[in-house]
Design goal:
By secondary structure, the protein is of the alpha/beta class. About 35% of the residues lie in helices and about 30% in strands.
């Protein structure tokens, strides 16, 4: 297994820092981008993403886990973090991963836990991952994502239900 410390500048010029875990293989591999929960870090709750990344590498799958802006080792202050910023960070991280020489961009998945699951699910229609992996409170996250998409698209809700289902 190979572990790389990586960083790049997001669209706002802030440095996002993370860790890439790769299997001991040559060429492009299926790849998962992990998004952490609220006030978390790229290791995830109880180091969940550290352990998961190692287990995926043992199965021939690579992964990246980044700290969002204002979290962990990335630039910024936590109090300056916003949901719009989290969405653009997730999109930028996914685009960064797709450009890496070791990533099979046709098999690029998005994974999120808690708030990261909400961000992943609400970004998925825009970035079109090969698959979406949600961990923890996925049903409530899906409902919140539908409402957010409805609000952004100007769709009307009636009794909590979206009249036009975009997800």
């Amino acid at each position: 297994m190979k572990i790389l410390q990586v960083q790049f500048k997001n669209r706002n010029g802030h440095t996002l820092r993370g860790i890439v875990t790769l299997p001991d293989t040559e060429g492009k591999v299926p790849f998962v981008v992990h998004l952490h929960g609220f006030a978390g870090s790229c290791s995830g709750y109880k180091s969940m993403y550290t352990h998961l990344s190692r287990a995926l590498a043992a199965q021939g799958i690579g992964s990246a886990r980044f700290d969002f802006y204002g979290n962990g080792e990335s630039d910024g202050e936590f109090e300056d973090m916003s949901f719009d910023g989290l969405h653009t960070d997730a999109q930028d991280i996914f685009a960064w991963a797709a450009e890496q020489p070791y990533v099979d961009s046709e098999k690029l998945f998005l994974s999120g836990q808690s708030m990261g699951g909400y961000i992943a699910a609400s970004c998925a229609p825009v970035i079109q991952p090969h698959g979406l992996i949600g961990r923890r409170d996925v049903v409530r996250l899906r409902t919140a994502c539908r409402r957010r998409c409805a609000d952004r698209q100007g769709l009307h809700r009636h009794g909590g239900s979206v009249l036009q289902d975009g997800l």
